[in-house]
Structures are given as structure tokens and as C-alpha cells.
Design brief:
The structure holds two protein chains of two kinds. Chain A is mainly β. Chain A contains no helices and eleven strands. Chain B has no helices and twelve strands. Chain B is mostly beta strands. The chains are: A mainly beta, B mainly beta.
Chain lengths: 113, 114
């Protein structure tokens, strides 16, 4: 298996622009997680899905952030409008669920200027 | 609620020396425990996990960890480190009967000096 795939790997955008991050989980995995990593706050869970349904979005910072999972093989995290404080590395992870082990993608490094 | 404390934010050691990275957790229920490693500019990779059974868990790259329920600890050890072990290490905990999400510690940056 190719593992968790994220795109793009790097994104540079200007403040106010819409940003869409993409994730393809490992085939057969029924949980998908979105994380944000910064030096100041470490690794934060933003939202997670089970069988394409959002289960817990309490980590989503504000209404500017939204996430969708239209099918078992694709998820998006959208920021609109983006702000400089959104600059971070965003990780997607997936799991089978029975032992809670999560498999992480390589991340998307977002820079908002 | 569960929480994880990694007692050292940075650990410098010399090559071929032993290392221990400390992790303590707080939970009112039984736990699953994990150690992940993050190499520069990469995602997190599982080193090892404790689900049940033997309290000594062996993982990849020569690492091992011991689950100590009475001390609520899950310290990571390696008898002899290599330059390639330079990375950030994260301890994580989850509730086996609860939500799927992992609670991560703040990470320990391991630096190996020649």
C-alpha cells in the first residue's frame, strides 16, 4: 500500500485566500484524522471521521476551518479566509480502529504571508 | 480525561550511549500506549505500542519500552544510539473502550552527538 497520501506537500498563499488540503487514507481504514503541528502548540487534533462521518470537531480552531469526507478514499481540510497564524504543518492520519494505531501522511507545510 | 507528560523536551546523548525518554500518563481507565518517531520534514511513524500482555514491548530500530501501571509510565529505551536516531519522539495514550483519538505528549527532541 502507498500509505496515507497528502497533497500538496507545500503551500504558500497570501492572507485572505482560500486553501484546500487533501488526503487519501489507506484503503480499508475506517477512521481519518486531521492534525496541525506548530512549534508553539505541538500536535493538535483538529477533527476526526469514522466511516466518512465527522465524530469530533472540537479541535477545529474557528469557523474559517472546515473539513469534509465525501467518500472513504478522500478528505479535504479547507481554510477560508487564511491568516498568517494558520501557518503550520497539517497532517492526515488513518486507522483501522481496532487497536487505535494511526498511520500518518507526510504532511502539508502551509505558509500564509 | 487522559493526558501525557514527556518530562524532557530535549535529550542530547553521545553516539553509542544508552538513552531513556520518559513518558508519564494520566488516565482513570485502562490504556493503550504508543511511541511515535518524527524525522525532520516527515510524518510520524510508529515505533512501538502496548495494548495488553507483556509489559516489555519491543519496537523497530532497536527501541523498547516498559509499561509500568503503578507508576503510570511508559519510558522508551535504547541501549546504544546511532546518529540516525536523531528525531523527535512522541508518546501517546488512548482509551481502549472509548474514542479512537490519541492524546499526544509535547515531544522529546533526541540529538545524537558524534
Amino acid at each position: 500500500d502507498a500509505g496515507v497520501i497528502q497533497s500538496p506537500r507545500h503551500e504558500v498563499t497570501e492572507m485572505g485566500q482560500e486553501v484546500t488540503l487533501r488526503c487519501k487514507p489507506i484503503s480499508g481504514h475506517d477512521y481519518l484524522f486531521w492534525y496541525r503541528q506548530t512549534m508553539m502548540r505541538g500536535l493538535e487534533l483538529l477533527i476526526y471521521f469514522n466511516n466518512n462521518v465527522p465524530i469530533d470537531d472540537s479541535g477545529m480552531p474557528e469557523d474559517r476551518f472546515s473539513a469534509k469526507m465525501p467518500n472513504a478514499s478522500f478528505s479535504t481540510l479547507k481554510i477560508q479566509p487564511s491568516e498568517p497564524r494558520d501557518s503550520a504543518v497539517y497532517f492526515c492520519a488513518s486507522s483501522l480502529g481496532y487497536d487505535h494505531e494511526q498511520y500518518f501522511g507526510p504532511g502539508t507545510r502551509l505558509t500564509v504571508t | 480525561a487522559q493526558s501525557v507528560t514527556q518530562l524532557d523536551s530535549q535529550v542530547p546523548v553521545f553516539e553509542e550511549a544508552p538513552v531513556e525518554l520518559r513518558c508519564n500518563y494520566s488516565s482513570s481507565v485502562s490504556v493503550y500506549l504508543f511511541w511515535y518517531v518524527q524525522y525532520p520534514n516527515q510524518g510520524l511513524q510508529l515505533l512501538l505500542k502496548y495494548l495488553s500482555g507483556s509489559t516489555l514491548v519491543k519496537g523497530i530500530n532497536g527501541f523498547e519500552a516498559e509499561f509500568n501501571k503503578s507508576q503510570t509510565s511508559f519510558h522508551l529505551r535504547k541501549p546504544s544510539v546511532h546518529i540516525s536516531d536523531t528525531a523527535e519522539y512522541f508518546c501517546a495514550v488512548s482509551d481502549p473502550s472509548g474514542a479512537q483519538k490519541l492524546v499526544f505528549g509535547q515531544g522529546t527532541r533526541l540529538t545524537i552527538n558524534p
